[in-house]
Automatic annotation (TrEMBL):
One of its GO terms (molecular function) is protein kinase inhibitor activity. InterPro entries: Sda (IPR015064), Sda_sf (IPR036916). It comes from the Bacteria. Keywords: Protein kinase inhibitor. The keyword Transmembrane does not apply. The keyword Calcium does not apply. Transmembrane segments: none annotated. Pfam families: Sda. This is Sporulation histidine kinase inhibitor Sda. It comes from Neobacillus driksii.
Length: 44
């Protein structure tokens, strides 16, 4: 995976969830977000 800033990672994850097409890509992004300790949504 290409190295992304935290902000870009979260935005890419949100866009992937909205499209809902590439399940494997969503999983990869989610795992990376968890590894970095980020919260992609404010209320979760």
């Amino acid at each position: 995976m290409k190295i992304m800033s935290n902000e870009l990672l979260v935005v890419t994850y949100r866009d992937a969830l909205k499209s809902g097409k590439e399940k494997e890509w969503i999983k990869i992004l989610k795992d990376e977000i968890k590894r970095r300790g980020l919260r992609p949504f404010k209320n979760r």
